[in-house]
């Protein structure tokens, strides 16, 4: 009898968590898994909002500043200006965006190569080389991994 009760409890918990998936994104109407920046939003709209704020992006409406573009699940990527305007209109909170983390550490072999060169180059050159190597490493990983 205890086993039967436990399985009923598990079923109840599963059905309650499934209800969370019924909540739609306030920006585009896609499925929302949780709150992002104080509103229920899909991961796509949350990521778009975060990147726009962090990078200080300003967008121009595709409809020549009419700001009347339809932002829904299928057309949310067509006009960034109207999407951002809708993010603000539905209440996404700019203060809820966390600061960006520090960049990842360089792999050991890259760090050793740089330290071997450091006696021959200035500090400015070293920073420049670190940036080039990091970008090259990221591109390599995204392409081959």
Q: How much helicity do the residues have?
A: 40-55%
| CATH fold descriptor of the largest domain | Erythroid Transcription Factor GATA-1, Chain A
Number of strands: 2
Output the CATH homologous superfamily of the largest domain: Erythroid Transcription Factor GATA-1, subunit A
**Beta-strand residue fraction:** under 5%
- What is the highest CATH level, the class of the largest domain? Alpha Beta
Total domain units: 2
Please give the order of strands in the largest beta sheet: 1-2
Instruction: State the end-to-end distance.
Output: 51 Å
Segments where pLDDT lies below 50 for 5+ residues? 5-19
Radius of gyration: 23 Å
From the coordinates shown, what is the CATH architecture of the largest domain? Answer: 2-Layer Sandwich
- How many H/I helices? 5
Form type: elongated
SSE sequence, one letter per element: HEEHHHH
The average pLDDT value, as a whole number, equals 75
Structural class: mainly alpha
Biggest β-sheet strands, sense, barrel: 2 strands, antiparallel
InterPro entries: Nuclear_hormone_rcpt_NR2, Znf_hrmn_rcpt, Znf_NHR/GATA
Domain Nuclear receptor: 22-99
Subcellular location: Nucleus
Protein name: Nuclear receptor subfamily 2 group E member 1-like
Which labels suit this protein?
two-stranded antiparallel ribbon, 2 strands, 4% strand, Erythroid Transcription Factor GATA-1, Chain A, 5 helices
């Amino acid at each position: 009898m205890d086993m039967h009760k436990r399985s009923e409890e598990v079923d109840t918990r599963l059905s309650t968590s499934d209800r969370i998936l019924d909540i739609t994104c306030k920006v585009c109407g896609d499925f929302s898994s949780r709150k992002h920046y104080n509103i229920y939003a899909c991961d796509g709209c949350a990521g778009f909002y975060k990147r726009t704020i962090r990078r200080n992006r300003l967008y121009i409406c595709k409809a020549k500043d009419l700001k009347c573009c339809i932002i829904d699940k299928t057309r949310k990527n067509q006009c960034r200006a109207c999407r951002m305007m809708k993010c603000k209109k539905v209440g996404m909170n700019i203060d809820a965006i966390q600061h960006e983390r520090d960049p990842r550490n360089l792999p050991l072999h890259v760090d050793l190569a740089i330290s071997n060169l450091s006696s021959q180059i200035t500090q400015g050159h070293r920073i420049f080389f670190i940036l080039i190597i990091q970008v090259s490493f990221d591109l390599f990983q995204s392409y081959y991994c």
